[in-house]
Amino acid sequence: MTIETILPTPDVFSARRVLCVQPHYDDNDIGAGGTLARLARNGAELFYLTVTDDLMGIVDPSLSPEAATEALRRDQAEAGGIIGVREHYWLGYPDAGEYNYYALRRDVLKYIRLLRPDFVFAPDPWLTYEAHRDHIQTGLAVAEAALFYGLTRIPSSDPAVDAAYPGHSLVGVAFYYTREPNVIVDVLDVWETKLAAVRCYRAQFTPAGMEELLLALEFKSRQVAAGMNFERGEPLKVLHPSALHCGI
Under DSSP, is residue 64 helix (H, G, I), strand (E, B) or coil? Predict the structure, then answer.
């Protein structure tokens, strides 16, 4: 028996400003690109924050780190233009490497206080069998920052941002890459938009690898929509920030 929080599930589509925190440059669009495209169509402002430098997945071994970074940013700008991303930010932590969790949490606090979103998206850090620490740390940092953003005695990575922060209300957190969704978003109308964005990520996918990914996304979208009154879905775990502590 699963006992849900007593708090109501926030309405994702009430969001006007959305901060999407991803471990790698393509995760937001792979995990929630349809939902985010719908939000952008509805007039929401989307901000993408990428945690790692993403250099470990580059498929062309001849690229220098500088050239690889340029390719990553080019792919991301193209995909963001399709989804409707207003602005990109990068933290530059080492992809699949060692970095401090609390430093990451401080950075996420900075961007929540700076951008003042009403919704934050991130990978579900409690995904069963998730082995990639970049995903786990990113999701956990977002979850804690969603609890602590209003407590300015807990510092971000930028004292000036903390000092200028006027306060605001974060309405909800949406975790993608989840096996425990409480919201399935109908993404049929934006499905081709999502696929077009995902196809932009050429720096980390061979043509064959990209086709495998697209087939997996097609299958998953139909699987999660089974039993619904639509054909393609994206699964999200959507929570009020207060539900992230003590299970209330």
Answer: coil
The reported pLDDT for the residue numbered 247 is 79
pTM above 0.90, yes or no: yes
User: Residue 133 CB: number of other CB atoms within 10 A?
Assistant: 15
Three-state helix/strand/coil letters over 87-125: EEEEEEECCCCCCCHHHHHHHHHHHHHHHCCCEEEEECC
CA distance readout (Å), 226 to 184, 229, 233, 234, 235: 10, 8, 9, 11, 12
Nearest to 44 by CA among 88, 90, 85: 85
Please count the CA atoms within 13 angstroms of the CA of 9 that sit on its side-chain side.
Answer: 13
Quote the Cα angle for 184-48-243, to 5°.
Answer: 50
Residue 18 Rama label (left phi>0; alpha psi -120 to 50; beta): beta
Using DSSP's 3-state secondary structure scheme, residue 174 falls into: strand
Q: Tell me: the pLDDT tens digits for 73-87? A: 999 999 999 999 999
